[in-house]
Amino acid sequence: GIRKISEKYDKVFETGCREIDNNKPRANATLVILARNKEIDGVVQSMKSMERHFNRWYNYPYTFLNNEEFDDNFKNTVRNYTSANVEFGYVGPDMWGFPAWADPKVAKEGIAKQGDAAVMYGGLESYHSMCRFYSGFFFNHPLLLKYEWYWRVEPEITYFCDITYDPFLEMEKNGKTYGFTIAVKELRETVPNLFRYASAYMRTNNLTSKGLWEMFVEPKPKGEKKIWEPKFPQEAMNTEPGTLPDIDLEAMEGEKYNMCHFWSNFEIARLGWFRSKEYQDFFEMMDRSGGFWMERWGDAPIHSLAAGALLGVEDIHYFRDIGYRHTTIQHCPANAPQRQLPHIPFLEKTTLDSKKRIEEDEYRSRHDEPKTNGVGCRCR
Ligand code: GDP
Ligand code: MN
Fold it and tell me: The pTM is what?
């Protein structure tokens, strides 16, 4: 069943410790940390964990990015925590803040409204900018252009286990594009219209699922009336009306976002994918809708739905062996083999018929899934 399929498509890259050969070539890769000067303590915490469990052996360079110049304290401090190369990059207004085509007054009002409605981070203009940057720009930052792979690191993360193999090289070797360790549900009110645009992208480009899209779709119960009324204020955002394709929202009947996404604060991915015309087109269309400002679209659901639209199951790697924690959510491999291997969400969707899935549901409710472990998220 599932276990066999997961062995076929998505094997753990290494089991047990590998001897690290310092003469072996490294991947063309960097660890990316977007941060503010004031986050230096959280950055140090993350670097300590990263170095202790991985990078003291592999020495991948760090790329620090910030929409303001890093101060000397930040720069000198991080240099103390790694012997790898470090670079510091400034993110300019071409990649941060309102684009030229958006009306800042409209966007600011939209953001204020989300603040009033207590949408998480919805009232923070900087957070919107950050999400848009990680959705559509980071991979083209001048400091990242020389790299083909990246590993995203955030302030205040923890790795639990030693990573004694090179995940970049393993992904390369196995033809993977995108790696995750946690999948969770998005806060619904941050993305009211995200899915209809992503779905419209599929339709307007005549794309059909390669098996991953279904991971993000909650089928509507039979007989339910159409609920997808267009109410997105893209007209207000666009100074060039008509930029958006003429979307037939009614055609979306029958599909609904299940809110599942790869939690992108951990992400190991091929930068070439983000730079591809397909991804760029996807981002451009999502961006032009105004949703990064009028709603609080996160880069996690953007990356995830782009993957759903453009990639197949075999392009994704679930790093079930990487123990990871950020804020209140964690993935602990110790819990994983027995209970979570069968719950690899996209494999489930693509390999089980609906009767079987119901049995799986019952199995889960009997076995009391741990709440903190996002991988248990029932994504389909
Ligand atoms: P959360 O993990 O979603 O709660 O959000 P964070 O506050 O951790 O932000 C996500 C990432 O973006 C982290 O790496 C932050 O350091 C970074 N970030 C968020 N806002 C800003 C900002 O205004 N400027 C910079 N330079 N980085 C930011
Ligand atoms: Mn964070």
Answer: 0.85
- In eight-state DSSP terms, residue 145 is T
Look at the alpha carbons of 31, 33, 37, 39 in this order and tell me if their dihedral is positive or negative.
negative
Ligand 1 probe mutation, 31, 32, 33, 34, most atoms within 8 A of CB = 34
Is the CB of residue 190 below 6 angstroms from any atom belonging to ligand 1?
no
Please work out whether the CB of residue 265 comes within 6 Å of at least one atom of ligand 1: yes
Is residue 137 within 6 Å of ligand 1 at its C-beta? Answer: no
Q: Whose CA is nearest to atom 24 of ligand 1?
A: 36
Query: 191-248 pLDDT, tens per residue?
Result: 988 998 898 899 889 999 998 998 898 876 666 555 444 444 454 455 454 444 455 4
Interface confidence, given as ipTM, is 0.99
| CA 90 to centroid of ligand 1, rounded, Å | 15
d(CA 163, CA 165): 6
Pairing type for strands 267-270 and 149-152 reads antiparallel
Query: Active-site residue numbers?
Result: 267
In this prediction, residues 276-280 reach a mean pLDDT of: 97
Which residue pairs, CB below 8 angstroms and at least 24 apart, start in 54-58? 54/159, 54/162, 54/163, 55/31, 55/82, 55/84, 56/83, 57/20, 57/22, 57/164, 58/20, 58/26, 58/166
What is the 35 CA–ligand 1 centroid distance (Å)? Answer: 6
pLDDT single digits (tens) 315-344:
999 898 888 999 888 888 765 443 333 344
b/e 222-247 (16+ beta carbons within 10 angstroms → b):
eeeeeebeeebbbeebbeeeeebeeb
Nearest to 64 by CA among 56, 74, 53, 52: 74
pLDDT of residue 241: 42
Query: What is the percent of the chain where pLDDT is above 70?
Result: 76
Q: Is any atom of ligand 1 closer than 6 Å to the C-beta of 35?
A: yes
Q: Indicate if the alpha-carbon torsion angle 271, 275, 276, 279 is positive or negative.
A: positive
CA-nearest residue for atom 23, ligand 1, is: 126
Q: Please give the number of the atom of ligand 1 that sits closest to the Cα of 33.
A: 14
Q: Ligand 1 atom closest to Cα of 34?
A: 14
Q: What is the mean pLDDT of residues 81-109?
A: 96
Using most ligand atoms within 8 A of CB, pick from 127, 151, 186 the residue to mutate for ligand 1: 127
